[in-house]
Amino acid sequence: MKDIHIRKLKAEDTEDISNIYAAITRTPVRDDFIQIIAEQVNNKEDASFVAELDGRVVGYMICIVISGGFGIKKGTWIANMGVNPKFMGQGIGEKLATRIFKFSREKGIKDIYTSVRWDSPDLLSFFKTLGFDRSNFINLRKVLE
Fold it and tell me: Which phi-psi region, left, alpha or beta, contains residue 100 (left: φ > 0; alpha: ψ -120 to 50)?
């Protein structure tokens, strides 16, 4: 595989990221997802990166720096990520995660969190290969009527 270039997310990446998201989820991209991308462009504290191959965005990882909630010291939260299905299994997600790890170390952050659905064994396996394990948290949900 050719060289993958990891760089900070830019406003012009919105369409490519949206297309990757739609290809993975097989659902239309919602306006709130586009808004999240836009907010990341101007946010200097959070860490969101894209992976480029031959000038084309083929993956992304959107992360938020969290602090002080529920007993958490400062930590990085991987909120969303995706790799173009045509390029999955080629180490792109790992390169994005490695860049997030570097960013976190530079900020003095030692804990990185994410959440994975139990019916997503590929994603769960991906994070386990990166050294992730269960945390002290249990995800809770309430559906409002």
Answer: alpha
